[in-house]
């Protein structure tokens, strides 16, 4: 058993030494679920929207959530691979239409209720500032709309560390499309071998980076079982990055 344990330890070390963080001049950073816990913020915000819709229209939580999830799925399918597919205003507009309520009265109310409450509980992951202080060249690479991602970075106190962001709204495509990565490199004025992509989404962030010959660090928060690319480092918490700088 001891030999087997040593083998697992050795395998883990080999996997985690595939890339050397000290070789990179810059970072490409995802935002949601990479720099903070998106899921807890979303749940809190949706609970506040549930209360609002019940207090104002007596719509039950189950009815509202079912309509919202259905609307989100429809918008995602209709506007696939565009920034607009993530627009909460469109989600709430269609939700209200499904509930036979006037979206021109309440879509913005729900939209503001969602994002104001979402932003109010955002907390950056531990050791983020330490990581940011190590790199002068950082570009945020994100699939959501530009307006709300700017608000998130201000709320997290991270806008002071970087002059660059590329949203799918700006790039006209989403990760893993190479154009969004190329635009980030153009802004940083760095080559592919000089940067590392850090993100939580395996298909978009990690495979997207690998397909574009960019090294990556996978923040595998959900501990998924995936075969990671050769030029990838797998970690489970953001503060583990400190061990590789």
Short key terms for the protein model shown above:
245 residues, alpha/beta, Rossmann fold, 2 domains, 6-stranded parallel β-sheet, 11% strand, elongated
Question: Looking across the biggest beta sheet, what order are the strands in?
Answer: 3-2-1-4-5-6
C-alpha end-to-end distance? 33 Å
Oligomer: single chain
Give a short account of the largest sheet.
Answer: 6 strands, parallel
Rg, nearest Å: 20 Å
Shape call: elongated
| Helix content percent band | 40-55%
The name of the CATH superfamily of the largest domain reads HAD superfamily/HAD-like
CATH class group of the largest domain = Alpha Beta
Number of strands: 6
CATH topology of the largest domain: Rossmann fold
Summed up, the helix count is 10
**Structural class designation:** alpha/beta
Strand content: 5-15%
Give the overall pLDDT as a whole number. Answer: 91
**CATH architecture level-2 label of the largest domain:** 3-Layer(aba) Sandwich
Q: Spell the H/E element sequence.
A: HEHHHHHEHEHHEHEE
